[in-house]
Amino acid sequence: MTGKITFTMIKPSAITAGFTGNILLKIEEGGYKIKALKKVLLSKEQAGHFYDMHRGKPFYEELTDFMSSGPIIAAVLEMENAVDSFRTFIGATDPAKAEEGTIRKLYGKNMGENAVHGSDSDESAEREAGFFFSFLERY
Ligand code: GTP
Ligand code: MG
What we know:
This protein is α+β, with helices and mostly antiparallel strands. It has a single domain, classed as 2-Layer Sandwich (Alpha-Beta Plaits), CATH 3.30.70. It has helices at about 10-15, 20-30, 45-50, 60-65, 80-90, 105, 120-130; strands at about 5-10, 35-40, 70-80, 115-120. Strands 2-3-1-4 form a four-stranded antiparallel beta sheet. Bound molecules: guanosine-5'-triphosphate (GTP) and magnesium ion. Guanosine-5'-triphosphate binds next to α4 and β4.
């Protein structure tokens, strides 16, 4: 059975560009319920811990530098089949390859600055939600 929650972040470049409101609106209009929400500035170490599964990959340094370069907005989202549906909803990792109308197509710039994160499994969603939020912060 697939789970009901996924975790997302609005990435620093999308916040700087002023897309926060548009992205949250699109998420809500897409039928996702926002269960938890906050704006956080990650340290390089915290970004490295969050992206631990990518440690050692060629883009790891660039990714963790970028994700700690400015605040992110973290959110837990609820919907049936949340993980898979949200990954389809945001589009391909590379905005140039993302479907028309997806968040990454609309608000992403390139592979690194691709506007949003989306969990890749139910296990990741729980780990990532727990990284940012206690259960007292998830309604
Ligand atoms: P997330 O939802 O952000 O996890 O994206 P994803 O699951 O579609 O991609 P993946 O987990 O493989 O990579 C995590 C993030 O690393 C991506 O969102 C990109 O921002 C970045 N990334 C992945 N591959 C590359 C790359 O080849 N170059 C650069 N600069 N960044 C990359
Ligand atoms: Mg991923």
